[in-house]
Amino acid sequence: MNVLLTGGAGFVGSHLAEALLARGHRVTALDDLSTGSMTNVAHLAGRPDFTLVVDTVTNETVMADLIDRADVVFHLAAAVGVKLIVEAPVRTIETNVHGTETVLRHASRKGILTVIFSTSEVYGKSTAVPFVEGADLVMGPTVKHRWAYACSKAIDEFLALAYHRERKLPVIVVRLFNTVGPRQTGRYGMVIPTFVRQALAGDPITVFGDGRQQRSFTYVGDVVDGLLRLMAEPRAVGEVFNIGNPEEISIGDLAQRVRTLTGSASEIVLIPYDQAYEAGFEDMPRRVPSLEKIHGLVGYRPTVRLDEILERVIAHERAAVPVAHRP
Ligand code: UDP
Predict the structure, then answer these.
(1) What is the full DSSP assignment across 91-114?
(2) Which of 47, 151, 274, 309 holds its CA 20 to 30 A away from the CA of 319?
């Protein structure tokens, strides 16, 4: 098949591109390189079955043309990362809402399978454990920028499901939970690449808040496996799925673990949320996916445990850090 990946030079997009190519599909990656990068797909460049188009999802002419040539679209292009969202709220809302709207409108002319990427952020401040797809979403007030990300992604979900109901577009909505692995950049605040780089450089490891907030991290390869399974399952159409790994760790413990695994002497420092992000910043204390739905339908189960994920990220970052800077 011809598969179009918007955001195909991003962290998740580039891993998905590799897996699709390995299964014999042809891949076109559309990316404006705002948070994605050429380096992520440099190893794919020059292959006859891979094309990178540097442009934005909101370019109507380009999108119309690429969708004409595609059999499936994975729409990953988005403004991501809490730091970016807090710093550039206009860009976040416009990119996430307008981009998805453009992709869905063009995809619906052809009626091709469209996978819309959402996020565990949409569960917002819900205290439910675990988060189940059909549960209520609990948002904070509009004066706090963090919630703009969750709301923009929730609108994307509504719109995708509306296209399915009203225009019969085959859509699948996936909610990713803290996806991590090699090639994820720490530039937009993501915690694991940030901690690993800090530890390798001997810089302080910056734990925000009191470090007791918990997260569950999913290896990008497991996410890709879930996506490929859903893509091949007709009963996934019109549905929303969590893709994650329920193994939890507190951010304070994560800092310790990274320090131990890297053999670093970095100190661990606590930074209040209002310094790390903005005054009145609200964080989620826990975020655990229910995998019942995706496991029941396509047999998805995460396979890579946190220590293994950390080992792989550390190896990747070590390869990028000059020897002189290694602890
Ligand atoms: N975090 C941290 N130090 C950092 C970056 C992030 O303590 O340098 C915390 C952040 O406040 C959150 C968790 O790590 O509680 C995960 O942050 P990330 O941005 O990776 O993803 P989020 O879960 O916020 O979407």
Answers:
(1) HHHHHHHHHHHHHHHHHHHHT-EE
(2) 47
The CATH code belonging to domain 191-215+247-287+304-325 is: 3.90.25.10
Tell me the HSE value of 70 on the side-chain side, using a 13 A CA sphere.
31
Q: Kindly list the domain boundaries of the chain, sorted by start residue.
A: 2-180+218-243, 191-215+247-287+304-325
Ligand 1, pocket-test mutation among 117, 123, 191, most atoms within 8 A of CB? 191
pLDDT in tens, 49-59: 999 999 999 99
pTM of the complete model beyond 0.90 = yes
Active site residue 149: yes
pLDDT of residue 135: 98
CA of 220 to the centre of ligand 1 (A): 17
Q: How far apart are the first and last CA of the chain?
A: 46
The superfamily in CATH containing domain 2-180+218-243 is NAD(P)-binding Rossmann-like Domain (3.40.50.720)
